[in-house]
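ligand=zinc ion
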Amino acid sequence: MKAAVINAPNGAVSIEERERPLPGRGEVLIRVRACGVCHGDLMLQLGQFPFAHYPIVPGHEIAGVIEEVGEDVSELRLGDRVGLSALFSSCGCCKQCLDREEFLCSQMEFTGITQDGGYQQFVLARAAYLTQLPDGLDFVEAAPLMCAGLTVFSGLRHAGFEAGDKVAVIGLGGLGHMGVLFVRALGGRVAVLSTSADKEAEARGLGAERFINLKTESASEALRTWEGGADIILAAPPAAGPMMAAFPGLALNGTMVVLGAPPDDIAVSPMDLIMGRRSLMGSPAGSRQDLHDTLHLAATHSLRAKVTAMPLDDAAKALKQMYEGNIHGRVVLVMN
Ligand SMILES: [Zn+2]
Ligand SMILES: [Zn+2]
């Protein structure tokens, strides 16, 4: 089988021929049909995850079909359509695992970072960590939901989002455009903050009622004119600057949810935190329950990420385009 491999931090992505693996106890072999290209894959290539294992096959937005079933797997059958997120496995018995917060387990294994991921024709997975795909989603539609969609939905859930909330979304990249779709589907209102004026039409087309140009407007002042400010800010920009600029634009009791990791620290004024009882929180992808709910919400509301499909052979090109900031919507690698 064909696999795209990164052999070391800052290494190239090379296509290799590998033996197709056999599933062991509790495992299944998935025929990968589609795998999204996440910013995390670029961070992996750049050596920004100290816990990564190289050589590694990247990819944690996997959608495919069960090809082989190992021993002691009862819940999945050949031909089942399944998805695998960044949650490859966890210990299963710590407090976080028992509380359905297994994505916070200290023993967690990450798909495509500590275990081989979906940039290949077949991938081994632990059956207990797979989620069945709803009928209403095809593989290419499902793939970007496995990390980008899940991260957005889980962030909103854990920030206490309620229908009618005003949500400011910083940036219209992979996470951002998904954020607008999810907030609208859940009955929220959206403002998009962006440094490029030409994103306004896209933002409005997705359902944003306001567009704030970060180059010409003060983010916090513009947000405060939005009936007192945003209840939630979803932040995944490539730099910390826009987050800091937007933070005082939160309404009273508002929360900024950090979903992406820029390289620099985020500084906020203690007075902005205290006087408005505002919160700054981070949120990783999410649990199996979060993923199940993400997929079903997307299927029910026909949420479709903007996707550019590319063949597996173009994995290196896809990551290069991401590095150059030359990506629109989500790139999804499609296997034949
Ligand atoms: Zn655990
Ligand atoms: Zn990701």
